[in-house]
Amino acid sequence: MKMEADLKTGFKDKTNKMLGFYPEDAKISKSYIAVAFIALLVGGFLGLLQGLNRAGLLELPTWFNYYQVLTAHGLLLILVLTAFFTIGYFYAALSHNLGGLLPKVRKFAWSGFVIKLIGFVLAVIPILMNEASVMYTFYPPMAAHPVFYIGLALIVVGVWMCCIGAFIQVANWRKNHKGQHVPILSYFATGVFVLLFFALMFVAVEVLFMIIPWVFGWVETINVMVARTLFWAFGHTLVNIWYLTAVSAWYVVVPKIIGGKRWSDLLTRVVIIALVIMNITGGFHHQIIDPGINEVVKFMHVFMSLAIGFPSLMTAFALFAVFERTARRKGGKGLVGWWKKMPWGDVRFLAPFIAMVAFIPAGAGGIAQSTNQLDQVVHNTMWIVGHFHLTLGMSVVMTFFGISYWLVPYISNRVLTPQINRLGVIQTWIWTIGMIFMSGSMHYVGLLGSPRRTSYSTYGDHATALGWDPYLMLLAVGGTLLIIGVILQVYAVFNMMFFAPKGETEFPIAEEEDNATKTPYLTERWGLWIVIMLIVVAMAYVIPLTEFIVNAPPGSPPFKTW
Amino acid sequence: MKMHLDEKIWLTISFGIIMGFMLITGYQAFALEMGPPSNMETIDPQKVDEIAPFNEPGVKQIGDNEYEVVMTLQAFGFTPNNIEIPAGAKVTFILTSKDVVHGFEVAGTNINAMVMPGHIQKITQTFDKPGNYLVICNEYCGAGHQVMSTTITVK
Fold it and tell me: Which of A111, A202, A342, A449 is deepest in the core (most CB within 10 A)?
């Protein structure tokens, strides 16, 4: 009897191995994904409170005011949701692609998990006590409680651990597979972790060497422009890390779900390399209307930012070409008739598809904002909030939702039931309509001048501000729909994680076309790409940072203005 | 590597669009002098009140229907506030912050500038249309950020 059981488990282990499933590794991804969606639930409710406040419908209590809510909302959704999802997803990919995680790598992932959670708790406590209402951008000379920054530093260390774990995993595979290309999804993971590793250096320098000595009073003043510039070198890269994560599913997973083949392997890898090289320098477009940076430097940075648009335009072509090719193979006809062959009822396709479509206006808005004069019109208005709810809230997060409908069953050894699929389709449409309302009205009211990060105000009943109110009401309508979407999504995730029927779920990775040309090995030379990346970063940042430091004004002491 | 003709056309157009944005941005910034506010002067943020011109904030006429507004920003107000200027006046705002980072936005115009402690920011606008313009701080600056506003009356 026992032997039989042993045989049975042995057999099960083998099939698991063939499917590329490793229970120990799945636990890591499961924990990360669970935290990500809890963050979505809490962060989503905080978002609703803000939306209702902005529309003038809800006054928030003094012990939990608008700016506390906003700081927590940003931290939960911009740091926790995205970082935990990205790491959970890519660690699942590394495990599946590269023959299971090394025990050492699992240790890195778990230590990173614990350190990040401790860091997060430390950052949240001062926010709840109204000692850190500084937003997730924490621009000095606003100074939060020191514990807030220690928490942030620990989050950075925790993410670094996961980067290092991933590098060890990939390096080990490459050592044992000389001359082979790293499988495509792990290649995406490598790009993402390289970007994370370097981007975090900027914010680590800001927090560890500038802010912490200053809030503890070891130094009296801080260089405001240097801190701000270091923040955005990190901040915008983080944006593109989520984007690159979503793009990985668009290139690799979605073609498999619709029963098609992957786009050119070489072009896919070129897009990844281009995004890694050009990303960090994009941060400067957050400073287009700052003083202390001359117009020539700002013009150079318009180029640096717009250049990121090019690989995205390559992506746009690739994805729609894959859709058309696949649908025509299935007998789709005519200029647009082939659309009927797409699996519209499959949430694993529908959610990322709408996410991609949303990236068309989102990307166009991004290009508009990167140019100097257009940025001046919308900088720090609600337009910007609309923009990143379209990019992050739709393009990225809806892709994450789409991923969850196969990734969560995969790591939980369960299956996606037709009921949950239907729920997912409904969720996708609710989310889409909610975001169109919310992001649309944010964009428009921003053009009219309504500022971001500002609680409800009529500015002494000024006619201009009163004119914004109808749009802010639409914003609240969108926000209300979105909270329904959040609840459905979180329910679906935890249902698939703990209650769905047991069974095996495939990790969907599309194959290359049969007649695909071979990708040159040059794409594997990460050393080279990192050197080029660092040169580009140096081109972008050495001149302005030198200017800020050499011609620095006397620094600023800490302020608590809330 | 083989690339489909359609893709070549698409990528050429993409590249063209990006270059088009570059050229227009450059033309506006350097030929039409519509560049974003980028003043390079600095100041000691703790001694703003003692240093010219901020020791005397206010509206000064400097030419034929040309004005200079020297203004300090501080949580949660603008000094001077509720200013008046004649229609058609060309106004240069000279701004700095006495504490944290603030924003200077005049709704309904293209005036939008970051005002940093330690830096003097400048932005110029010609007010052709009479009216009461709402001026707001558009960078979160603390508990009273939502009340940090003033007006410019153009008549």
Answer: A449
- CB–CB contact A454 B146 (8 Å): yes
Q: For position A10, what pLDDT does the model report? A: 53
Place of tokens 């590329």: A20
Based on the fold, state whether residues B30 and B84 are members of the same structural domain.
Answer: no
Q: What pLDDT score was predicted for residue A1?
A: 45
Residues B71 and B135 in one domain: yes
Among A313, A380, A551, select the one facing B103 at the smallest CB separation.
Answer: A380
pLDDT tens digit sequence for A70-83: 999 999 999 999 99
Using CA coordinates, name the residue in chain A closest to B30.
Answer: A295
| Burial label, A3 (beta-carbon count in 10 A; 0-12, 13-18, 19+) | exposed
State the pairing for strand pair B121-127/B112-115. unpaired
- Could you tell me which of A1, A90, A34, A167 has the C-alpha nearest to residue A494? A34
- pLDDT at res. A406: 97
- Nearest-CA distance B66 → chain A (Å): 23
Which of B4, B21, B105 lies nearest to residue A451, judging by beta carbons? B105
Asked whether residue B27 falls in the same domain as residue B55, the answer is no
Residues B111 and B149 in one domain: yes
Structure-token pair, residue A241: 């890390």
Q: Which residues of B touch A453 (CB under 8 A)?
A: 139-140, 145
Q: Which of residues 297-316 of A touch B (CB under 8 A)?
A: 298-299, 302-303, 306-307, 309-310, 313-314
Under 8 Å between Cβ of A205 and A230:
yes
> B117 and A556 in contact by Cβ < 8 A?
yes
Residue A556: inside a domain, yes or no?
Answer: no
Q: Omega into A401 within 30° of 0, i.e. cis?
A: no
Examine the domain organization and report whether B118 and B60 are in the same domain.
Answer: yes
Chain B residues with CB-CB distance to A455 below 8 A: 145-146
Tell me: do B99 and B127 sit in the same domain: yes
Looking at the structure of chain B, the number of domains it has is 2
- How much helix, strand and coil, in percent to the nearest 5, is found in chain A? 75, 0, 25
Is B25 found in the same domain as B53?
A: no
Closest Cα in chain A to B36: A289
- Chain A (109-138) residues lying within 8 Å, Cβ to Cβ, of chain B: 133, 135
Any domain includes B42: no
Residue A307's pLDDT is what? 86
> Among all residues of chain B, which has the CA nearest to that of A299?
B26
**Domain match, B73 and B3 both:** no
Nearest CA in chain B to A130: B143
Phi-psi region of A503 (alpha: psi -120 to 50; beta: other; left: phi over 0): left
Nearest residue, CB atoms, A553 vs list B119, B147, B149: B119
In this complex, is the C-beta atom of A456 within 8 Å of any C-beta atom belonging to chain B? yes
Using a 10 angstrom Cβ sphere, with 0-12 exposed, 13-18 middle and 19 or more buried, the burial of residue B109 is middle
From the list B22, B46, B107, the residue facing A306 with the nearest CB is: B22
Is B41 a domain residue? no
- Structural domain harbouring A271: 22-511+519-550
Domain-located, residue A10: no
Residue A259 belongs to some domain of the structure: yes
The domain that holds B135 is classified in CATH as: 2.60.40.420
Find the DSSP H helices in A330-468.
347-370, 372-378, 382-390, 397-412, 418-447, 463-466
Residue B24, domain extent:
1-35
How large is the ipTM?
0.94
- A3 domain-assigned: no
- Assess contact for A447 and A381: CB atoms under 8 A: yes
In whole angstroms, give the CA distance from residue B147 to residue A355.
Answer: 37
